[in-house]
Design brief:
Number of strands: 14
Distance between the termini: 19 Å
Structural class: alpha/beta
Order of helices and strands: EHEHHEHEHEEEHEHEHEHEEHHEEH
Strand order of the largest sheet: 2-1-3-12-11-4-5-10-8-9
Strand content: 15-25%
Radius of gyration: 20 Å
Oligomer: single chain
Shape: globular
Helix content: 40-55%
Bound molecules: 3-isopropylmalic acid, magnesium ion
Number of helices: 12
């Protein structure tokens, strides 16, 4: 098969992980007789440097013309303190919205080899951690109105609004139920219905959907409690569906209990098969250029792209098995290092994974 992949090299450490991921994709292409064509796309800090805009239309168009997009991470301290449209992150938000990617899928699964790296007690980890956060990605306060006004008394007041309409809730709610149907048929809707109108509307829409999925054991949980339950008893979760910002926060928490945020990939999809695949971690500016960053989340994101957008399950399995073998051999990057393991850098980790494919 021939596929056109738009590649966003990203900022800071991101280029190092994308480089390893492309090497892995090339190896897969050679092994299975595919052709992957890559088109570089500038987004985030790189696009701000080149074009003074974190995602110019011509760069978004390249993504829309591709079969899928692979992204490392954006964000650079150089742009810190800059407001609104000129932030690298704004490019990412415009990319998600511009591609219509409302469904962000973030798996939290413990690799048994990394159990020691989890901050949770072994007695909790032993129960198993294997759930998915289905995060709404192009609504809520990320895309509501943001403004800062000066009040009559001279004090500044900032307002961020969190709009959700029924169709936005329904389409992500359905993904939640469908994901649960493919797994252990348990769905938890996480919200703040004791305070927010948007959450109460979520519940109303979810109740209608629930009637269509009688096999799914459906429950609801307030987000503060969910944050607590994720570290107290994560084995209770199968699929969590939640709005954009709650999903952002809980997915960082969920990644940490699995050992390292450097291990968690994600997929973002809309109505078609074209997706955006990216690790859930940031651009790690503190270790940029030092060959220290963990490339696995990005490599696993590339595997998700093969599985979900290109229907290449065997190829995705191959990459995941290679990661598994490398972990079995005790190779670890600094973020997930534990006693008795061998510390390696980003490119050595890439080499080791390539050798197993
Ligand atoms: C994520 C990131 C982004 C988000 C930032 C970089 C805007 O934290 O993908 O989780 O909040 O969505
Ligand atoms: Mg985040």
């Amino acid at each position: 098969m021939e596929k056109n992949i738009a590649v966003i090299w990203g900022d800071c450490s991101s280029k190092e992980i994308v480089r390893e991921s492309i090497r892995v994709l090339d190896k897969i292409a050679a092994k299975y007789g595919h052709t992957f064509n890559y088109t570089d796309v500038a987004m985030g800090g790189e696009a701000l440097d080149k074009y003074g805009d974190p995602l110019p239309q011509h760069e978004l168009d390249k993504c829309l013309a591709s079969d899928s997009v692979l992204l490392g991470a954006v964000g650079d301290p150089k742009w810190e303190g800059v407001k609104g449209e000129m932030r690298p992150e704004k490019g990412l938000l415009r990319l998600r919205a511009g591609m219509g990617l409302y469904s962000n899928n973030r798996p939290a699964k413990i690799w048994p080899q990394l159990a020691d790296a989890s901050p949770l007690k072994p007695s909790i980890v032993e129960q198993g951690i294997d759930f998915i956060i289905v995060r709404e990605l192009i609504g809520g306060c990320y895309f509501g109105e943001h403004k800062t006004d000066v009040l009559e008394n001279g004090e500044k007041q900032a307002v961020d609004t969190m709009p959700y309409s029924e169709h936005e809730i329904e389409r992500i709610g359905r993904i939640g139920f469908e994901t649960a149907m493919k797994r252990n048929k348990k769905l938890t809707c996480v919200d703040k219905a004791n305070v927010l109108d948007t959450s109460r509307l979520w519940r109303e829409v979810m109740h209608k959907l629930q009637a269509e999925y009688p096999e799914v054991e459906y429950s609801e949980m307030f987000v503060d409690n969910a944050a607590m339950q994720i570290c107290k008893n994560p084995s209770q979760f199968d699929v969590i569906v939640t709005e954009n910002m709650f999903g952002d926060i809980l997915s960082d928490e969920a990644s940490q209990i699995t050992g390292s945020i450097g291990m968690i990939p994600s997929s973002s999809l809309g109505d078609g098969t074209r997706g955006l695949y990216e690790p859930i971690h940031g651009s790690a500016p503190d270790i940029a250029g030092q060959d220290k960053v963990n490339p696995i989340a990005c490599i696993l994101s590339a595997a998700m792209m093969l599985r979900y957008s290109f229907d290449m399950a065997a190829e995705a399995d191959d990459i995941e098995a290679a990661v598994n073998k490398v972990l079995d051999k005790g190779l670890r990057t600094a973020d997930m290092m534990s006693e008795g393991c061998t510390l390696v850098g980003c490119s050595a980790m890439g080499d080791a994974i390539l050798a197993e494919i």
